[in-house]
Design a protein that fits this description.
Elements lengths: L1 E6 L3 E7 L5 E8 L4 H16 L10 E6 L2 E2 L6 E2 L11 H9 L3 E5 H12 L15 E7 L3 E7 L2 E2 L37 H4 L1 H10 L7 H10 L3 H25 L3 E5 L7 H9 L12 E4 L6 H7 L3
Parallel strand pairs: 1-4, 4-7, 8-11, 11-12
Antiparallel strand pairs: 1-2, 2-3, 5-6, 8-9, 9-10
Helix pairs in contact: 1-2, 3-9, 5-7, 6-7, 7-8
Amino acid sequence: MRIGIDVGGTKIEGIALGDDGRELARHREATPTVYEDVLRAIAGVVVRLEASVPPGVAPPTVGVGTPGVLHPGRRVILNANLLCLNDRPLDRDLATALGRPVRLANDGKCFVLSEAIDGAAAPPADLDRSRPDVVFGATLGTGVGGGIVVDGRVLTGENGAATEWSHTTLPFLSPGEHAPYACFCKRADCIESFTSGRALIAWYRALGGDDADGTAIGSRAAAGGDAAAGRAFALYEEALARALASVVNMIDPRAIVLGGGVSNNPRIFDNVPKLWERWTVPKDLRTKLVRAAHGDASGVRGAALLW
């Protein structure tokens, strides 16, 4: 049995998975803002989930998905939007609290791991094992995250920050082109400032739209009749195609899986693959663009699968 914990800004969610990947139990609690309280809350979720362990079964492994990254040298969390985690040795403190080793990874990477193991990007039966199997994933929500899985393992990198792609400059910018809003990272025209839900909303309002959120804008674009929504979504899709084209050019994945609220619009999966070959070096791409199969559960499932 495996336990996965997803530490978010508003909730801590836990899941217990059987050896066959079947969900056995789930529990969630509100996320505290004080570090010691976060440790206690995570430990409490683990205890609740362990109640579903059959008698005589070994204690389950624990994997945790967190915002930010675990620096492999300093062994502390960096760049987490849950500020109390920053500069803290979360894996070691949790191991002490739980009395067993704990594996940590960025929550975006956990999302991709789940989908690459048994989700939308799971290996096909005829997979060519003579070369590495590479899956890229991105979460398109209020912000943008990402991850790479190679042969069923999360790629973290020498500095723990592999696939912090969203805060690099969007490739193939036209002269005078700028993002519809300024990202908190303060790097001009980063990928997140073009491909997040915030970007879609900003484009829509700039084109004369109202105060609708990203979900409503996507629905209006799909339904037709709202020219501003259609144009805003077209701008969004082109930016996303450029961002993903750079991924293809760099790592040439077998599949790219998308999650997050903006990805709920199915037109993305039709339109973006029609656009991205304008910027990719290879043509007649075999890379598949797929929608996450496990939805909001992908992150917490991936945390469990870190073992």
